[in-house]
Structures are given as C-alpha cells and as structure tokens.
Amino acid sequence: MMSDITWLEHVFSDLNIQCEKISHPALHTALEADRLLLERPGTRLKNLFLRDNYGKRHFLLITSPNKQVDLKALSKAQGLSRLGFASNERLAKYLGVKPGCVSMLALLNDKNNAVQLWIDSQLWQSDLFHCHPFENTQTWLMEKKDLLKVFDYSNHSVELVDL
C-alpha cells in the first residue's frame, strides 16, 4: 500500500495522464475549502468511505459537497442491511490514506479490489473533477476520461447511484 505522490506521478506518466495540480493549505473538508474561497475549475467532490453493517464490504461514495446523503435509503437501494462510516483504521487499511485525504485516486492503493466505487449519477455528468493525490495539500484537476484510465488500471469499475 503506497501513499506516495511520486509513485502516483509515475503511474500517471505510464497511463499518459496529465492534469493541473494546485497546491493549497491542508483541507480536511469541503467546508474548509469554502472558507479559503479557492476558485478552481471543475467539480468539487465529497468523498465518503463507508462499510456495510458487518464490516465485510467497503464503499467509496463520491457526491457533491452540498448533498446530504441518506445512508438508510442508500443501503436499502443497494440491497444492504445497513451502511455506516468506516473507521480511520479501515480507511488506512483499504485506501492507504488519512481522513481528509480521501479521493477516487486512493483506489490505486486498493490492491485487493476490496472497495466498491459508487458515484452520484448526477455528479458524473461533469467532465472535470477535484481529487486529492493521497494528501490534502494539493488538488489535482482530473478529466473523466483520465479517471476512467485510473479505474481500469486499478481494476475498479464505476457504479452510478441515485442519491
């Protein structure tokens, strides 16, 4: 489980992915980004790392920062008994990042393909997305086509969910 930006840059080079990289103070939440009044093109994201009731299945849910997620309704729609937030220990184990550093790019650390990716179907209409590269002092602006390369490389697929 490697959480190294240099390694990530090598992967991007191998996949022929280029993106704009923006450095900023550490941002743990979308609300903190709002306070800085950062003007960046693209779609801002809320990244939620979830687990099922038994802790056997894990999910990375990507949605809009302003959207309230009804976990009870989502678990019912996905045929699960209950969803909850995964612990920081699970986050480190499965995605190799700390709280506040979660993004779709962390799926590259999920070597066992233990985390399912769920993306809000409305959000996925966009073409440019904000992603932390394993740490929250940078935002990389990722085109959808390049994120799809990352998902293919990491053996993850996109499951669109209606929230």
Automatic annotation (TrEMBL):
Signal peptide: none annotated. GO terms for molecular function: aminoacyl-tRNA deacylase activity. InterPro entries: ProX/PRXD1, YbaK/aa-tRNA-synt-asso_dom_sf, YbaK/aa-tRNA-synth-assoc-dom. Keywords: Hydrolase. Residues 24-149 form the YbaK/aminoacyl-tRNA synthetase-associated domain. Belongs to the PRORSD1 family. This is Ala-tRNA(Pro) hydrolase.
